[in-house]
Specification:
This protein is of the alpha+beta class and 215 residues long. The chain contains two helices and eight strands. Keywords: Membrane, Transmembrane, Transmembrane helix.
């Protein structure tokens, strides 16, 4: 017959005070053969890409650098591209114009340590700029070719350019030569005309004198 809890008294238990303790259980160990360590963490997605200044065809871009693994370490390389339309940045990022070291006026595209400010001045080819606003974005790669997400979009606004029609040097030369030759011909014709006019006037005077004498 079970004893009801209400019938149990404190006198039936021995109470001992002990120090704090922890319980642990040794589970043993195992060995995994053939396992190869793999880097699965990509660089962080840059979220603060911005255009600091715009000067003629050059742009100063700044951003907080991503790391090799998220924000830890240093990424292997940084890919910067620009588009003439914002919608194309995320839709067709790889089809944008790629920035290379040849486009860099100041700084470098080589990544800096994750968390540090990266600043670079790049110049845009006029042949690739079909609008007054250019849209930039970037992404980073690590040594295992893990790719970080495409960054936010940074806009660069260029002043409208006044296109002046320029005459090629060859055409300009022909124009000058033609003008000089034309002026010379007009001068010759003018001199001939004046000479003929004077002869005509002399003939008229002689004719009048002859008539007067006859009368």
């Amino acid at each position: 017959m079970m004893q009801d809890e209400s019938d149990v008294t404190d006198d039936q238990f021995d109470e001992n005070v002990v120090d704090d303790f922890q319980r642990s259980l040794l589970a043993g160990a195992f060995l995994l053969n053939g396992w190869i360590e793999k880097d699965i963490l990509p660089p962080n997605r840059v979220i603060d890409l911005q255009v600091e200044t715009v000067s003629e065809q050059c742009v100063n871009l700044t951003w907080t650098a991503a790391g090799d693994d998220m924000d830890t370490g240093t990424a292997n390389r940084t890919e910067i591209r620009y588009h003439n339309e914002a919608i194309e940045v995320y839709k067709n990022f790889s089809n944008g114009f790629l920035i290379s070291e040849n486009d860099v006026k100041n700084g470098t595209l080589v990544p800096v340590h994750g968390g540090k400010l990266h600043s670079v001045i790049i110049c845009i080819s006029i042949q690739n700029k079909n609008a007054n606003t250019i849209y930039f974005a970037l992404r980073n790669y690590d040594n295992s070719q893990n790719i970080g997400g495409i960054s936010n979009i940074a806009e660069a606004h260029f002043a409208k350019e006044v296109v002046e029609q320029q005459i090629p040097v060859s055409q300009l030369t022909l124009f000058v030569v033609g003008a000089v030759v034309g002026a010379f011909i007009l001068l010759i014709l003018g001199l001939v005309f004046v000479r003929i006019l004077r002869k005509h006037q002399l003939h008229e005077k002689e004719f009048k004198k002859t008539n007067v004498v006859r009368l």
